[in-house]
Amino acid sequence: MKITVVGTGYVGLVSGVCFSDFGHEVICVDKSAEKIEQLSKGQVPIYEPGLEDVLARNAAAGRLKFSTDLVSAVDGADAVFIAVGTPTRRGDGHADLRYVMAAAEEIGRALTGYTVVVTKSTVPVGTNRKVAEVIRAAVPGARFDIAANPEFLREGAAIEDFMKPDRVVVGVESEKAKAVMAAIYRPLYLRDFPIVYTGLETAEMIKYAANAFLATKISFINEIAALCERAGADVKGVAKGIGLDGRIGSKFLHAGPGYGGSCFPKDTSALARIGQEYGVPQRITETVIAVNDAVRRRMVDKILDLCEGKVAGRKIAVLGVTFKPETDDMREAPSLTIVPALIGARAKVHVVDPHGRREGEALLPGVVWEEDAYTAAQDAEAVVILTEWNQFRALDLKRLAGSMAVPRMADLRNIYDRETVLAAGFTAWDGVGRG
Ligand code: UDX
């Protein structure tokens, strides 16, 4: 198959690279000449484990190309994927479809023969039909079909999620488009990964419902965690005890500082807006969002309580600022509310993150960046674990405690246990939901 991917952001790049690894001929298009030049040299602008290697081997095999020229790239393509951004629109929480519609129109004008135009970007219900209208309006008589093909990639594990998905969702309305999509995903079908074919609106809804449901699990366990602290229960035990029930499932029940990233906050907020628009308020999702906001404030209180209210002028070490490990992504990271709150309380905040500094420097003014956890914690009065990078899971706790002015730990990802931390010489420890 000949595939064109428009937009080389996170989703577009991972999809294009992986499609070429299936053996398809892929051109990734972006308006940014700088980005395309970088990618053509094999340089990946984001940190995603494995991506650079898969890109290199397919580029070397001549199956993967990068270009700024959308018109030539669309010429003769079997399928064109729209993978441009859908940020939350300022003010009203809606997904901003400006880039999707602009891409659709441009693609429409460039179509030569029959092509399936596929939306990969997460878009509100009804958008795929609008994409078709935009193309038809731009080029009456254009030969194309639309397909909705939402992605379910986790950052940090995107290649694996693409190559070994729980399922692939394809919304189509014609047998012809279905055949093209089936040919594209044939390597996964042959390996027994389920491909779910639906209508357009159902595919669009699946994406929002999946992310809102996962976000619900997180907000749910975070509320249970707060209750565990008061009631003397341990949320880790609770999560295990409920998760073994197959109907509940053990994943996404880790209590912590709330969900962040590029998907959950954006998609829950968009779903809430869609619900309001249709006059069917999504009350559970609305509450999930409110709970997630409250969790962050609760984390700040936890740190202040751990420090007995005295943080002004005191050094606090924060380990991890990205929204989760194995990514350099800072979007909606809990650190973006927690760190400024500490600085607002006049704490001297020293931070360390294996990949967060490049983006984080501009986003977290007033902090001191350190190279490792031990220098960050030197003379500090508390160490706060905010992102569960592996290197923070295996700290020499005795060494850490020994170098601190007051050895206290707020373990907001529950990667340690009270006994272990106190045995290493810490005088105070607090986790999330560990009553
Ligand atoms: C998510 C979805 O998993 C993916 O399917 C979708 O397409 C995009 O959004 P991602 O945002 O990369 O992927 O990260 P994920 O690993 O799902 O974590 C999201 C957030 O939830 C993170 O902030 C993480 O720390 C938090 N989380 C996750 C918890 O707080 N507890 C959990 O048990 C799981």
From TrEMBL:
Catalytic activity of the protein: UDP-alpha-D-glucose + 2 NAD(+) + H2O = UDP-alpha-D-glucuronate + 2 NADH + 3 H(+)
Name the positions where NAD(+) binds.
30, 35, 86, 122, 155, 266, 331
Q: Which GO terms describe its biological process?
A: polysaccharide biosynthetic process; UDP-glucuronate biosynthetic process
Its domain of life reads Bacteria
Molecular function, one GO term = UDP-glucose 6-dehydrogenase activity
Question: Which keywords annotate this record?
Answer: NAD, Oxidoreductase
Family assignment from sequence similarity: Belongs to the UDP-glucose/GDP-mannose dehydrogenase family.
**NCBIfam families associated with the record:** NDP-sugDHase
Protein's name according to its UniProt entry:
UDP-glucose 6-dehydrogenase
> Which organism is this entry from?
Falsigemmobacter intermedius
